[in-house]
Write a structure and sequence with these properties.
The chain is mostly helical and 206 residues long. The chain has ten helices and two strands, in the order αββααααααααα. A two-stranded antiparallel sheet has the order 1-2. A hairpin with a 4-residue loop joins strand 1 and strand 2. Helix 2 runs parallel beside helix 4 and helix 5 packs antiparallel against helix 6. The two termini are 33 Å apart.
């Protein structure tokens, strides 16, 4: 029989940690007859730990450690979002938004006990920029881009200025004109889920 249960034990000092480690290992191996994985078992400070995708940081205001998604977990989430927002992925926008929603819901729900408001704000910002670029690319030709911007409330001269500026996609996605035309509100109406808004809705304090 194999056991794959992981656990963290928090104590106040390194001396106490060594004592508890010795006691726990002795109990598990002598009383339960199991073998402790010495490679995974270690004494460490909370800020240096990664446990089930979570990391820890010290909250000086409340004088205690708090949980957050580990940096590698955030990076993995961002890679998934980038993969789903590749410009050369030829799928309907609605399908792309649906897949983004599924990934975001699952990730945020899993880490809902974490403090990650700042991280979700940055992820939302980057994701919206990439979606705007996708929409811009779908408009394809200059005439279509100008017409679409005007329909979305942009003065014609501004629309022409952006269309013929010859800047790269990154500039387009971050431009104020495109942000006004394809606003956060319009993206939400289209179905794009805000990671921050969902996080604030499901966040659980432990």
């Amino acid at each position: 029989m194999r056991y794959a249960d992981d656990a963290l034990i928090f104590v106040k000092s390194e001396k106490a940690a060594n004592r508890v480690m010795e006691t726990i290992v002795r109990f598990i191996e002598n009383k339960l007859g199991l073998i402790v994985n010495v490679e995974k078992s270690k004494i460490s400070r909370p800020k240096d730990l990664k446990f089930l995708g979570f990391g820890y940081y010290y909250d000086s205001k409340n004088e205690k450690y708090q949980v957050k998604p580990h940096l590698t977990s955030i990076q993995k989430f961002q890679r998934k979002l980038r993969k789903l927002t590749k410009r050369n992925w030829s799928v309907p926008l609605d399908y792309r938004i649906l897949k983004l929603k599924q990934v975001t819901l699952g990730w945020v729900n899993y880490f809902r006990i974490s403090n990650m408001k700042k991280a979700m704000t940055e992820i939302d910002k980057k994701l919206r920029s990439r979606i705007r670029v996708i929409i811009w690319k779908q408009w394809k030709v200059s005439k279509k881009r100008i017409k679409s911007l005007v329909q979305l409330g942009i003065p014609e001269e501004e629309a022409k200025g952006l269309t013929f500026c010859r800047k790269g996609y990154r500039y387009i996605g971050l431009s104020k004109v495109v942000q006004r035309a394809i606003s956060n509100k319009r993206l939400k109406q289209r179905g794009l889920l805000s990671a921050l808004e969902h996080y604030l809705k499901v966040h659980t304090v432990i």
